[in-house]
């Protein structure tokens, strides 16, 4: 006779070894407002990546000296940055086809890391365009390759050497993305990313996604990162040695102008304010990353589970802001909550009289058992019209 | 007060418009042994892909004449194939960096389509290597690009022009994959794919995945495809006109030798024979493809949900066979069933006395309400040892 395991909180937990579950409870109870990250130790993979890259360059590069340039960056060097300059000048370190097209390259005096991607068939969703999850995945990939190719990578996923020595990791606290146009299968996109200081103890990472052929900017994103001790799970100041490592890479440019950024507080949803609550969402084994945590990007799928079906089908997701507050493991059953925020004013300049109003929603993911918040989010949606370009 | 939607069969169904649900029931009840496919109409994306490619070649190719070669294939031409020849000769049609590295190219007298991929960070799983889902996704992508680049593509996802005229689509009935080694983040893999006849009315598609740098074959896969009318959902013979289109591409080579292939029947699991049953698995909005069906590859994640946790953690999935039997939509709640088949004999040649025996499992996914089968599967697992290469 078969033993039946249902997706209730208790039975799923039983699949987790005791010590793992204890560790998770410990992590969740340190009372931090933020503790989610995907920059945990994946040492093996990082070492592998570096080895592969060198081999690739050795076999394909026309200028072997570029090897020194990649890893020989003088970290004490300073750069004069023209804040107003937005002219793109390609000063790539290595232009071998394999490196340039599969791994990315530095441009603009090594302040910007650029990587090209082709949208794959399985990265598109029901409306045949790249999903928001796909975009976020590509942003993550570009950020990680930026850190690795900068020569700063320590033993963690995106951590620098000085951070690794101190058992520190980057954790993302907020990410905001604005999509002007979603790409289709076979479209080639080019992603630029760079970092800058954010207050005293934060780092800002921005991205721009361009259509490779038209050069049109189709997506902009910005994110805030802070440093956490991976053992105590407590936030800490950026140590001077770490600041010394990353500061030479700081680039004073913003992907999203201040007045267009979404930096407003996201309201907490409760049973009384949520319009829809989807319960019983169970992380799958395949949602876990190397650290047995749910990958940041996976939250998007769960958030969308409580969005009305007609909105998913008839609207483009044009803007999303995620505020990460807590880690999540496979043992946690989740609830996805959504509530309409307000209707965006109809565009008075629009020629179309019957144009549907855009939609704004507030979302929250929380643990099903203790209702602890995992992530708050805000989304904005634009009614789909044929051959429509999104405007935010 | 919020309205709470739980993941029970009934409440989820209510989110589906009535006509959609009816259509799905109709599809499920035609009594076909197989009806799953990912080759449905995605016309827009296909057209887009072709346009992009041409633009890319025009801007980057050193030999503009190759444009004619890509689309000018004489479909009446015949090829003399040396069945025993396995020597790889690169006769690529277009070698512009963008095309070669992002889109793929024909090799071996245009019988083999080859595409290169870099494993991205988010395509790796808890053990830091590319997941089985990732491998299957890459195989799908290569197959679709093969059809598109062959110049045969009609308006469907992988369908030829003569098929589109007749409203016919390819459906996969069986796929078998053998993994010798899983790649890590940053590894570059090269995938070869080709097709051949399979009996009177089937087509076989094979793949080989190589480590780009070592040239080692790390994965082999083979699949069987038949033709279905996309409206009646009935299987049909390959029309002469379609055979005429595809036959010039048939290539008499097998990725997996007959004696190493898994062509045995997969036993049906029932409540009494399943060791584990995971119920309440709910497809997410993001699991759907352009046709509101669950993408083939998504089944893998659900199958793994009923595999014992220690096996997922301590063993490599070295072999998987999927037998597709029915389509699945978002309205369907699923059950994942797993049962150990037998323990593989310990390798008597192994020096390691304490070597763990390999594992074999039988799986089934079925609808939760009417217990209708969706997919049967068989997996084989190899105990993880450090720096271990998998042997099947």
From TrEMBL, chains A, B:
<keyword id="KW-0934">Plastid</keyword>
<dbReference type="InterPro" id="IPR049427">
    <property type="entry name" value="Acyl-ACP_TE_C"/>
</dbReference>
<keyword id="KW-0444">Lipid biosynthesis</keyword>
<comment type="function">
    <text>Plays an essential role in chain termination during de novo fatty acid synthesis.</text>
</comment>
<dbReference type="GO" id="GO:0000036">
    <property type="term" value="F:acyl carrier activity"/>
</dbReference>
<dbReference type="GO" id="GO:0009507">
    <property type="term" value="C:chloroplast"/>
</dbReference>
<keyword id="KW-0809">Transit peptide</keyword>
<comment type="similarity">
    <text>Belongs to the acyl-ACP thioesterase family.</text>
</comment>
<feature type="domain" description="Acyl-ACP thioesterase-like C-terminal">
    <location>
        <begin position="272"/>
        <end position="382"/>
    </location>
</feature>
<dbReference type="Pfam" id="PF20791">
    <property type="entry name" value="Acyl-ACP_TE_C"/>
</dbReference>
<keyword id="KW-0275">Fatty acid biosynthesis</keyword>
<dbReference type="InterPro" id="IPR029069">
    <property type="entry name" value="HotDog_dom_sf"/>
</dbReference>
<keyword id="KW-0276">Fatty acid metabolism</keyword>
<keyword id="KW-0443">Lipid metabolism</keyword>
<feature type="domain" description="Acyl-ACP thioesterase N-terminal hotdog">
    <location>
        <begin position="112"/>
        <end position="245"/>
    </location>
</feature>
<dbReference type="Pfam" id="PF01643">
    <property type="entry name" value="Acyl-ACP_TE"/>
</dbReference>
<dbReference type="GO" id="GO:0016297">
    <property type="term" value="F:fatty acyl-[ACP] hydrolase activity"/>
</dbReference>
<protein>
    <recommendedName>
        <fullName>Acyl-[acyl-carrier-protein] hydrolase</fullName>
        <ecNumber>3.1.2.-</ecNumber>
    </recommendedName>
</protein>
<keyword id="KW-0150">Chloroplast</keyword>
<dbReference type="InterPro" id="IPR002864">
    <property type="entry name" value="Acyl-ACP_thioesterase_NHD"/>
</dbReference>
<keyword id="KW-0378">Hydrolase</keyword>
<dbReference type="InterPro" id="IPR045023">
    <property type="entry name" value="FATA/B"/>
</dbReference>
């Amino acid at each position: 006779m078969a033993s039946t395991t249902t997706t209730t909180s208790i039975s799923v937990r039983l699949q987790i070894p005791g010590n793992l579950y204890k560790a998770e409870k410990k992590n969740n109870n340190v009372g931090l407002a933020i503790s989610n990250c995907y920059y945990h130790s994946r040492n093996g993979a990082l070492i592998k990546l570096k080895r592969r890259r060198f081999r690739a360059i050795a076999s394909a590069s026309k200028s072997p000296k570029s090897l020194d340039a990649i890893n020989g960056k003088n970290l004490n060097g300073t750069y004069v940055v023209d804040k107003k300059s937005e002219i793109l000048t390609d000063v790539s370190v290595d232009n071998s086809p394999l490196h340039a097209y599969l791994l990315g390259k530095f441009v603009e005096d090594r302040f910007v890391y650029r990587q090209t991607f082709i949208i794959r068939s399985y990265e598109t969703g029901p409306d045949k365009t790249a999903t928001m999850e796909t975009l976020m995945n590509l942003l993550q990939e570009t950020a990680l390759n930026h850190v690795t190719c900068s020569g700063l990578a320590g033993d963690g996923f995106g951590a620098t050497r000085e951070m690794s020595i101190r058992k520190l990791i980057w954790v993302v606290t907020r990410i905001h993305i604005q999509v002007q146009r979603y790409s289709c299968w076979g479209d080639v996109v080019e992603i630029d990313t760079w970092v800058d200081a954010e207050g005293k103890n934060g780092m800002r990472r921005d991205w721009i996604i361009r259509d490779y052929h038209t050069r049109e900017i189709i997506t902009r994103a910005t994110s805030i990162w802070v440093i956490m001790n991976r053992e105590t799970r407590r936030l800490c100041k950026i140590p001077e040695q770490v600041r010394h490592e990353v500061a030479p890479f700081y680039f004073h440019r913003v992907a999203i102008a201040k007045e267009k950024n979404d930096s407003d507080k996201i309201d907490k949803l409760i049973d009384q304010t949520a319009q829809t609550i989807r319960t019983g969402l169970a992380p799958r084994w395949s949602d876990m990353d190397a650290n047995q945590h749910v990958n940041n990007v996976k939250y998007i799928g769960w958030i969308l589970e409580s969005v009305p079906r007609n909105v998913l089908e008839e609207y483009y997701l044009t803007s999303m802001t995620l505020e990460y507050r807590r880690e999540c493991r496979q043992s946690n059953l989740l609830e996805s909550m959504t509530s309409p925020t307000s209707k965006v004013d109809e565009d008075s300049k629009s020629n179309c009289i019957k144009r549907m109003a855009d939609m704004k929603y507030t979302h929250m993911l929380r643990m099903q058992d203790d209702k602890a918040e995992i992530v708050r989010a805000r989304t904005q949606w634009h009614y789909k019209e044929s051959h429509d370009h999104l405007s935010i």
